[in-house]
Design goal:
Elements lengths: L4 H19 L2 H7 L4 H10 L6 H12 L2 H13 L5 H17 L1 H4 L9 H7 L1 H34 L3 H49 L3 H11 L19 H17 L2 H8 L4 H35 L12 H9 L4 H30 L2 H4 L5 H23 L6 H25 L5 H21 L7 H19 L9
Helix pairs in contact: 1-10, 1-16, 2-10, 3-10, 3-18, 4-10, 4-13, 4-14, 4-16, 5-14, 5-16, 5-19, 6-12, 6-14, 8-9, 9-10, 9-16, 9-18, 9-19, 10-14, 10-16, 10-18, 11-14, 12-19, 12-21, 13-16, 16-18, 19-20, 19-21, 20-21
């Protein structure tokens, strides 16, 4: 089913408008190129460290929220209940732990990437290992997110999924290529405001369309069993969303994704000071809690609405429920705004990932970083890497994945544990050395791959397991091989 021409015009206008907004910052990059490579790196990859803390908080939320979050979270509560929110409780705890354990280290010097801290602690080779882990993980995980764009556009326009991915990624590459991190941050702010407004409007329209309003929602949900269940205190490790896996697993997942992944750390490093970075990170947690609450409630409302007006055909995947509602049930004009908000999230994710992938590629590998002493050449290489990673993400976006939100979280969780274990080892164990760190990372990755392949343990525990094995192995090996050279903490 195709959308109304007015809605299509709104979506197209949004795509062109946000691209034009990002392109406005191209002049800033040209001015920075007249300085040295440090000035170029600070401007292109950190936005000149001029963004206010609240804009960085918005950018963090926009970056960790994706199209698969917006369409995948309501699908989880539509098909199940509200227990996913327990994972978000862990997200809040993880942010506090980052502020206490990891954030201070990032501001002991002028770092442009998270992995510069690893070089300071364990040397150049371990920096390359950590950066390589990030590059592979981020590219695949972002590919899952990009594939969600195709799902939405195929429902909306009835067009080719390949064409949908091509258009959105091409426009995103364009403004990221030209405007750098400053363009990414401010387009993130605009996109966050758009999709939060769209989500609130969707909730209100859905509630209005349900005969009987909220009382009908509670009655139908109660008749369905545990539709409004929030907490599950069971200790079943195979259950994805329990209080314990959410609180503990969610905290470790966030420590990894927000404390060691360049995509988020880059925003923390872009703050004017450690204090502003701390405020941005903690404020983003409050926004995330509010937004996931709304997303999950929308899923419950969709379930109740579907009892009166069915949306999905037999055997159709639950991820399609929200796009179908927007296309079929929303008034013309309003549907276009809401669909544009979903595309906004996709572009926000892709732009942040492109800039961070380019930053790590250029700065974390000595063979590339050491060859660029000329500022203009450095800027050309940075932009070239942005373009190259755009092509990679486009390729991964065409792969067919499973249930979108859980597929994205699972892909990210597999290597995140060993990466977090590496950072904790360098931060908490002053006697740890490079050999211990490398062996620990390998052991942590092998352990979690075995858990993934041979057990039914839920993905929410993967980061905790991987980090624990990495830390314990690194701690032990560092003490056995005392002759290795260590970089002091």
């Amino acid at each position: 089913m195709r959308i109304h021409p007015l809605d299509l015009a709104i979506v197209v206008a949004y795509l062109l408008g946000v691209t034009a907004l990002g392109m406005r910052f191209r002049r800033v990059q040209r001015t920075a190129a007249t300085g040295d490579t440090t000035a170029v790196g600070r401007e292109y990859f950190l936005g000149g460290r001029t963004a206010p803390w609240w804009a960085l908080a918005f950018s963090i939320v926009a970056t960790e929220t994706s199209t698969l979050t917006i369409i995948g979270t309501p699908a989880i509560s539509y098909a199940g209940n509200l227990t996913f929110i327990q994972l978000v409780f862990g997200y809040l705890i993880g942010r506090v732990l980052i502020v206490l354990l990891l954030l201070p280290g990032y501001f002991r010097g002028e770092f442009f990437t998270a992995y510069a801290l690893i070089e300071k602690r364990f040397g150049e080779k371990m920096r390359a290992v950590a950066a390589s882990t990030f590059l592979i993980t981020r590219a695949i995980a972002e590919g899952v997110r990009v594939s969600a764009i195709a799902l939405v556009v195929s429902v909306v326009l009835g067009t080719s999924e390949k064409l949908a991915v091509l258009i959105v990624i091409a426009l995103t590459v364009l403004y990221t290529f030209e405007g750098g991190m400053k363009a990414v941050i401010w387009t993130d702010v605009a996109q966050l405001l758009l999709y939060l407004t769209g989500s609130a409007v969707t909730f209100l329209v859905l509630l209005h369309r349900i005969p009987g309003g909220w009382s009908e929602v509670t009655q139908v949900a109660a008749a369905a069993g545990h539709k409004l269940q929030l907490l599950d205190f069971s200790w079943n490790p195979a259950a994805k969303y329990t209080f314990w896996s959410g609180l503990i697993g969610g905290a470790f997942l966030t420590m990894a994704s927000h404390g060691t992944d360049q995509t988020i750390v880059q925003r923390l490093l872009a703050a004017k000071s450690e204090r502003d970075s701390r405020r941005a990170l903690l404020t983003s947690g409050v926004i995330i809690l509010m937004q996931f609450t709304v997303f999950l409630l929308i899923g419950v409302l969709l379930y109740v609405f579907a009892q009166h007006s069915p949306l999905l055909a037999a055997g159709e995947r639950a991820d399609r429920i929200l796009p179908l509602f927007l296309v079929r049930e929303m008034p013309a004009g309003l549907a276009g705004l809401l669909l544009a908000s979903i595309v906004a999230v996709a572009m926000s994710n892709a732009s942040g990932s492109l800039n961070s992938l380019a930053a790590s590629s250029v700065l974390d590998f000595s063979r590339l970083h050491g060859q660029n002493t000329d500022a203009r050449r450095f800027l050309r290489l940075s932009r070239g890497m942005t373009l190259a990673w755009g092509l990679v993400l486009m390729g991964f976006g065409l792969v067919k994945w499973g249930p979108l939100l859980e597929a994205g979280l699972t892909v990210a969780s597999l290597p995140f544990g060993s990466l977090l274990g590496l950072f904790l080892l360098g931060t908490l164990d002053r006697r740890a050395n490079a050999r211990g760190a490398l062996v620990g990372m390998f052991a942590g990755l092998v352990a979690i791959l075995c858990v993934f392949g041979f057990t039914k343990v839920a993905f929410t525990w993967y980061v905790l397991i991987g980090a624990s094995v990495t830390f314990a192995t690194g701690w032990a090996v560092s003490r056995v091989r005392r002759g290795d050279e260590r970089v002091p903490a």
